[in-house]
Amino acid sequence: METITTALGTAVTSLGTNIQSAIGANLPAILSVAAIFIVITATWKLVKRFTAGN
Predict the structure, then answer these.
(1) Interval 10-26: pLDDT, tens
(2) Is 29 exposed, middle or buried, given 0-12, 13-18 or 19+ CB atoms closer than 10 A?
(3) Which H or E run contains 19?
(4) Residues contacting residue 23 through CB under 8 Å, at least 6 positions apart
(5) CA-CA distances (angstroms) from residue 39 to 15, 33, 43?
(6) Alpha-carbon gap, residue 49 to 42, rounded angstroms
(7) pTM tops 0.90, yes or no
(8) What does the alpha-carbon distance between residue 30 and residue 32 come to, in Å, rounded to a whole number?
(9) What does the angle CA 21 – CA 6 – CA 1 come to, to the nearest 5 degrees?
């Protein structure tokens, strides 16, 4: 039973490390995608405001 618990703990720890390294490696890409979405949304709102005003 103790062996199973230890194996599970190791698996969870390594999984967490893998997720952290994956996020760390992809963080610039994630941030750039988020920035693009923010810019598109802001531009869209500006365009709608100007077209609605005319």
Answers:
(1) 999 998 899 888 888 88
(2) exposed
(3) helix 2-53
(4) 30
(5) 34, 10, 6
(6) 11
(7) no
(8) 6
(9) 150
